Amino acid sequence: MQKDFSNIAIAGNPNSGKTTAFNRYTGARQHVGNYPGITVEKKEGIAHLDGIEVTLVDLPGTYSLTAYSMEEVVARRVLSEEHPGAVIDVVNSGVLERNLYLSVQLMELGMPIVLALNMMDEAKSKGVHINTERLAELTGLKCVPMIARKGEGLDDALRAAVELAKETGGRVAPLEISYGTDIDLCLKEMVPLIEEAQLLTKYYPARWVAMKFLERDEEITDRAAKLNPELAAKLQAKTETLTSHLQKTAKTYPEALIADYRYGWISSILKNGVMKGADDISHEDRVAFSDKADRILTDVVMGPVILFTVLYLMYYVTIEVGAIPNEWLSGFFDWLGGTVGDLMGDGPLKSLVTDGVIAGVGGVLGFVPLIMIMFLFIAVLEDSGYMARVAYIMDRVFRFFGLHGASIMPFIISGGIAGGCAVPGVMATRTLRSPKERLATILTVPFMTCGAKIPVFLLLVNIFFEHNRPLIMFCITLAGWAAALLVARLLRSTLIRGVPTPFVMELPPYRYPTFSGVVIHTWERTWQYIKKAGTVILAISILIWAAMTFPSPPAEVEEQFEVNKAAIEERQATGALTEEEAEEQLTELENSDLQQHLLNSFAGRLGTAMETITSPAGFDWRTNIALIGGIAAKEVVISTLGTAYSLGSIDEEDVSLADSIRNDPHWSLATGVALMVFTLLYSPCFVTLMVIKQETAKWRWLFFSLFFNLAFAYVLSVIAFQLLK
Asked: What fold characterizes domain 2-168?
């Protein structure tokens, strides 16, 4: 197959359909990671077109290229430093004027652009008709109508981008708009200075660099100051002079004026035969379905009621429907452990495979059907546009507790609607501009019910709340929100005081989720869960198995076991015991011996030593070891308990972890609730802790999150156990 080594970037506003287009192009041929040194997700994939392979880079969704957020910084760095051959700019045709603001800035950067006019069907349903030929004529761009969710126009847009990359080599003459006499004169003074010193001109057009000074773009001005402090100071002085002049004469400032002229340029094009029919639509027709639906779904009273109903139904269907395949898969791993054990000879290797690997990893993989169903619901909510409404509904609540409305999305990503992950949740706080609100959000998102905690909750709920499982899971999610908000209020009143900032957000129109989009999103998250079980959880399970196996008890203990075993067999041989009685006593003796092995192991000694502290919460040594392992990854709580119970008993029948806990007299409703409270609230996993350190650039917040959360969880779990006991 012939290869095309040109990279094509896909840009666009959030909710423009950019991600849908990327998923349609690349399918499963995606690689997801982070940009080097930056916690912003990087997606690359391969698209096939006319017998060639095209590498696509999915830029972070952004409204502009001015560095107000890390996504905007990353998007323009990719465009200027990684030199894609062309850009497919995906715009929402229904709100074309607003989406073209990013297009203008891409043109000012000198990027070859294919304008992909997405959601043309939705625009037509609103009575908006776009003359793509006229738009191409006035802008000089290749314009392609597209409906990404149906796959229409995707090949045309990609083909146009590949051709454009070959024609231009990745660069075209930058667009130059007049920004009025004052700004134009200032730019004419600044541009020659920048060109002469070649200040950042390796990456950006000189006029674009000058505009960034006028827009007070800190990322550009800081880079310029490091490269050429004298010139940067001179450009900054010209900016201050212009700013002072505009404030005196027009009561405005350069950033606002530049934005006004950009929108003016866009408006003049759209009014010049590009958009037709919009002015003739009646008022009733112009009120979109989304607006009508939002009158109910975001209502002060009905909005929260509907939200809680949706969440409860999600849990109900997940648990009730997923229970059947969950039982099948759990039964399969129980059977697999028994079968493999029968085929292997007694010894450490058999114990490692059956008790360490199969019992540990199998306990986590058994919950894959439930996790997959939950991820499916989350994908539908995201792709339909309802997630944005959740943020809007919760904004009033968040402000009361000292958080920003934009904090809601990190909470949701972390598991506010169960099944997320705290790692991307912490990273998602980059969109918060207030450092104090961002820090408070970072420190509280780990309280959400992430996908790693879900298996622990499902196990305990199935054991102790068999008849109210959906309701209890729903209550656990609400408890996570309540804990996070209360801690946020505490932090914002003590360690992280500061004035709140306003919340502004665009609500995307409702859409029918596409089958392919939902499948891809569900599979991506489920595969991450499975991959984690096969890598991180497997490694930790083996380490914990070793800690629970070695060292062996002293020789005299083993000798006493053999003596007791021989005595029982002798009594059976003489007829003092029946075969059934002897079998029962031998099983009891072997279980006692295995318990001695466990208690003598490194893990047993550590867990037993901790019981002095954890017994007020109802935790025994097995639970203590499981919770220590859970700091590495919360799924390890399940795998450790599975290993502990598998190593600690012998039975002719395969017994599941749930049955082992049910049969253990130590466990009670109070113990189960205390463990759920502790698992929900205690220290974030190791990866999350490292991301907290990376995002805050301070070790102290890592240690704060570790030890404060431990103490907070301990106090509440003790209270829960003592009240229910």
From this structure: Rossmann fold (3.40.50)
